[in-house]
Amino acid sequence: MKDENFVDSAELDFSYFDSRADMQLKSDTGYYRVLNIAAPGANGYEVSLNNSFNDALASYKHNTIGGYSPAKLGLYQDLIERQIYNNIQAWGTNPAMKDSFPVLNMLNMKYVIVPDQQDPKNTKALQNPYAMGNCWLVKEVRFVKNADEEMNALNTFDPASTAFVHERFKTSVPFTPVYDSTAYIKLIENKNDEIKYEFNAATNQFAVFSEIYYSSGWDAYIDGKKTPYCKTNYALRGLAIPAGKHTIEFIF
After folding, report:
1. Cβ(130)–Cβ(112) under 8 Å?
2. What is the pTM of this model?
3. Quick check: 35 and 53 in contact, CB under 8 A?
4. Cβ 49 vs Cβ 101: under 8 Å
């Protein structure tokens, strides 16, 4: 190890100081994700779409849809390359047009960290009012024949009303959801290996969870009974839930 291999401790600590965006986000105690498109530049911060998936600093303090890892699920990498990059560009062009970035909304991207134009050496957080939250109930489930059809369906859709499911999961969706204006599902606990939700509806429903589908580790339970769930919207989890009041759990 040579002298140039070492970094001054003050310089290292500076990277972890709370930015203006970090201070803003501390006031929101909910469970959400952020997208970081602010990258350190020569004169402060600059917009960088590539930074979202090549920098892990935002992940040190926040739940993000990006961050850096040398190993990613192929499922999520597909989403990054085919949808997320396009969604980020669409958001940057018109953040008020929610239909142009539906995948960011279904990933519960509640905030975007951007350079602060008034303070170039700082960042700020912009809120996305269209983030879908942790889970929601849809009005219809549409089945698709293959992965390409499923991916292309995400180009323009309303995640609040429609969910796309591959035909191979048809047995996991034994009934069609029936609209109920009083129905609800909400997150009540989120641990590392266990996520718990509360559900109540007078009719059968289909819920979409803003969590990545991974059947090799995560199992779904309705009132303690293991229940099959399905890959939904190419990368998320979907679950058919019968009418009534239920406790829903995902356990790794």
Report:
1. no
2. 0.93
3. no
4. no
